[in-house]
Amino acid sequence: MEIHQSAVILLLVLCVSFSAHAQEPPPYVRDRYLKFLNQHRGPFVNVEMCTSEISKRNITAPDGGCKPVNTFIKAFTDYIDPVCGGGKDSKLFRSNQPFNVVTCTLEPEPKYPNCTYTGKLSTQYIVLGCIRGWPVHYEGQ
């Protein structure tokens, strides 16, 4: 059996791309990265799930009250992390392709802990705040 040179090159490219994020984030980024994932990664979140997901994930405003708006990116980590440019030093990165997102907006009147949200599905480019190639902040579109 003969291995073609192009197959070897493809295998090497795949190995390098998978190894870029195969490891854990550095300790100084880990907590912020995990918080970002909790607040914004939602591959299976739909518009009807806003209130339950925000409550279940204990997502609150900085003052501990109801967060006015929270956005879930309907994608897995393998698609979200590469938006950060593979470890380049920069603060904000815009995705090269649009993502489906669910934007959850606080309904008028509810007070913490009875936060109630209305969801809206859209497709948009996302902008993430990143540290050393790891997303730590959802900036928007």
Automatic annotation (TrEMBL):
GO molecular function: endonuclease activity; hydrolase activity; nucleic acid binding; RNA nuclease activity
This protein's UniProt keywords: Disulfide bond, Endonuclease, Hydrolase, Nuclease, Secreted, Signal
Subcellular location: Secreted
Keyword Cell membrane: no
Signal peptide: 1-22
Biological processes per GO annotation: angiogenesis; defense response to Gram-negative bacterium; defense response to Gram-positive bacterium
Keyword RNA-binding attributed: no
GO cellular component: extracellular region
Domain Ribonuclease A-domain intervals: 29-140
InterPro entries linked to this entry: RNaseA, RNaseA-like_dom_sf, RNaseA_AS, RNaseA_domain
Gene3D superfamilies: Ribonuclease A-like domain
Transmembrane regions: none
Chief subcellular location: secreted
SUPFAM superfamilies: RNase A-like
SMART domains documented for this protein: RNAse_Pc
Recorded family membership: Belongs to the pancreatic ribonuclease family.
Protein's name according to its UniProt entry: Ribonuclease A-domain domain-containing protein
Species name: Phoxinus phoxinus
